[in-house]
Amino acid sequence: MDGTVGIAETGAGKAAAKAAAENFPVALRLLGGGRRRAVMAFYGVARRADDAADDPDLPADAKLERLDAIERGLAGGAFGLDGRARAHLRRLLVAFRADAVNAPVQSEADLLGYCRHSANPVGRFLLDLHGETAAATASADALCTALQLLNHLQDAGGDWRNLRRLYLPLDWMDEAGADPDMLLADRAPPALARVFARFAALAGDRVRAAAPLPGLIRSPGLRVQAAATLSAARRLHRRLEGADPIGGRVGLGRCDKALALAAGLARLPA
């Protein structure tokens, strides 16, 4: 561990344990020792659950058994986390169970409901960990949902190819005349491109709704993290708008990450 961790690993639920980690680096050293240990313990449980839900060699029932074992561990205090952290992780497990059985996402409402379990609990965990007030909750939820949506868009092709998992709402696909197997192509056909554009627009709505978050956070370290994450999310959203995520990986480079962190550090008090 080099003292840094992906923002997505600590602030975006399911994206915490997936490739989105490459997009949102932030220094863990900004957190105090006790908080840092709590974040890493939380992340460790989320990662374990994610590995179970995404194991391509396990049948659905075996995945669910592993997730049930994790929940039993939470109930028994096995991971050294307090009651509120365990409650947030139990909400995450709802999403991991949906992933284990590749539950279909029929509509935008289904998609946002999934994000409420897969992403938002981790932002709320961080707010609780820092003693923040409820004033920041809605904006934190918006940012976590945005990160999850951006990650889904980045990984749409691989999720279908490797796991037969689809987060693009089926009613959107039907309206556009798109088929999930279009995700196996080298480039998105026009029908699928329309779905991607709609998905990116939804993510953009959530990025904009998250704008007040840094100003609502009292903890300097968490304020830096929120501002850096928001800056990176804006950059990634701009990259994904109009892009073809199955034509090539769309992500952030080192310069983007450095600029995002600079945006966060600018929120530290003088």
Number of strands: 2
Count of discrete structural domains: 1
**Major sheet: size, sense and barrel closure?**
2 strands, antiparallel
Radius of gyration: 18 Å
Distance between the termini: 29 Å
Order of helices and strands: EHEHHHHHHHHHHHH
Q: What is the helix content? A: 55-70%
Q: In what order do the strands lie side by side in the largest sheet?
A: 1-2
Q: What is CATH's topology name?
A: Farnesyl Diphosphate Synthase
Structural class: mainly alpha
Helical stretch tally: 13
Q: Name the CATH class.
A: Mainly Alpha
What is the approximate shape? globular
CATH superfamily: Farnesyl Diphosphate Synthase
Overall pLDDT: 86
Low-confidence segments, ≥5 residues, pLDDT <50? 1-13, 15-26
CATH architecture: Orthogonal Bundle
In percent, how much strand structure appears in the residues?
under 5%
Walk me through this protein's architecture:
The chain is mostly helical and 270 residues long. It has one domain (4-265): Farnesyl Diphosphate Synthase (Orthogonal Bundle), CATH 1.10.600. Helix content is 64%, strand content 2%. The chain is built from 13 helices and two strands; from the N terminus they run E-H-E-H-H-H-H-H-H-H-H-H-H-H-H. The chain has a two-stranded antiparallel ribbon. Helix 4 (83-100) packs antiparallel against helix 6. The longest helix has 22 residues, at 33-54. It is globular, with a radius of gyration of 18 Å.
